[in-house]
Amino acid sequence: MLSPDQCAVLFDLDGVIVDSKEAHFLAFKQFGEEVGYPFTRETFTHIFGMHNNEIFPIVFGHPLPQEEIDKLSVRKEAIVREMIRGHVAALPGAKVLVRALREAGFHLAIGTSTPLANVELILGELGLQEEFQAIISAENVQEGKPHPQVFLLGAQALGIPPEHCVVIEDAVAGVQAAHNGGMKALAVTTNHSREALSKAERVVDSLEEVTPTDFLKLLN
């Protein structure tokens, strides 16, 4: 029987702790105007949640050198931070659950394709920056979800075996990434239906529905 100090919970960021989807769309739209690309909601829906290394070749329709992707990423993410600064709000139950898990003894990490500066801004505005022992962000990964790299790096940073980890995700690719890494998945229906997320070990409409005990049940 596992105890909390032998387990980890790995949180995705967007759609799990915060929902900054609309701010990201507006940022992409402004960015598109700057670079001469008409950014539509259809395009945004397709690329949201991907790593910037994947996004920009899709947006421009051809491969780009890494230095060009890096330059475009810096500008786009600066716009995102302008959009969300001062307007960060946690999704229902997120802050309470994070603190309850830490108090219970779980190891916690963030696993996201979001750049570190954005993660630090969000956690700082929510007062959660001290609750996570590791942050795996865009700078740490080369492979996007459903590749499990981001979560495997999180487990490694915490010193917890993948089979003792639960990932909290809101995306189908994120659930797949958790399973590809040998981890359990708890999915939140922030942006996708229960049916779409049905391969997760548990699906909830809000993190208000779960407690630390539920994570032990998933692992035990």
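The record above closes out task 2.4. Task 2.5 opens with a second protein, given below.
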Amino acid sequence: MKYFMINGYIPSAHPPKIHGHGYTDTNFGRSQGKTRQARARTYKECGIELPQLGETIFMQHPKIGRISLFVYGAYDAFIMIVSSSQRNAYLLGNSLRAAMTCFHGNPPMEHTNRYLLELTKIPDKDMSHQDLVSLIDPGPLWHSWDNLLLDLELDSGTCINHIQLKAGCNIVAGILDHSRLLDALMHLEYSRNLIWGFMVGSYYVCHYSRDRKDLSRYKKERLYLENRCRYDSAFVSAFRGIECLLGKPYFKKGEISFLLADLDREFHTDYGNSRHKSFFEVFSSHHRWWKYEDLIAYYLKLRNAVSAHGNPSPPHIVMEDQVFEIQYLLQSMLGDILSYTCKQRIKSRNRTTCSTG
């Protein structure tokens, strides 16, 4: 088996404290030379449960591998991936990164070193931070100063707690056995990396919608002129995600209803009869409700102009509006389908438990 740690995330070593309908999470960071006994006293003084040392599995696939939280030393932690091959390890790691980015707005921090750092042997719960650094397999162009840079990198990243990690792992578990859904999620992640279209409702209501209404046509044109290639690329990547969901690249307008019907039969959705709700009144579509067939046909027309014909003049202007809207359409459809796949996975697991019990 191969062991990897994810670079760019800093997971909390301990479970969050759940109260009422919410939770409180306190991340103490690295131990910075403290003993385990001293750190344990700090946890006790704050009324926080002591972390469980060693590996705690958050998701396991019988053929691909597992995603775990590994707590070591004086309660430091990292996300670990255990798999039989490098290819499967990246399948798990890339899936988790895309799930956390697209559904929770928590992308990993970009670092100089690799996203997955392979360990030369099984990590130990009693090791120090420096012991962990020494376990990491050096890259092909490794220099003497890289260990120092890596030590600093491992102390920085996107903080996530157990609840967020579990939610991301649930998405990974529901998508691994459906390659085209995974491809759709990857395309959405790439689109969001080009143009960050993730925002919570409170940010939209209190900030974004008000700022957009204050923008003049002249300033909107400036945004377009500065970001045209990024807008086009982000839009096309999200549309490729729609193609993955429908199971056919380069489909024609007359095929959309049939492809949606096939999707409905496979994943028990209802895109043929239901409508998509747009949550963004300030966007240029000015539609609140869309038939899925009509909305995808509208995006197909834009895709053909931007991608197939190079959008020379351009005859169709793709701006932040269209990018955000297609990203949220793709996220919404993926969420519906993943809800079904996760329910099926739970039913299958319960049947297995009953038959073996």
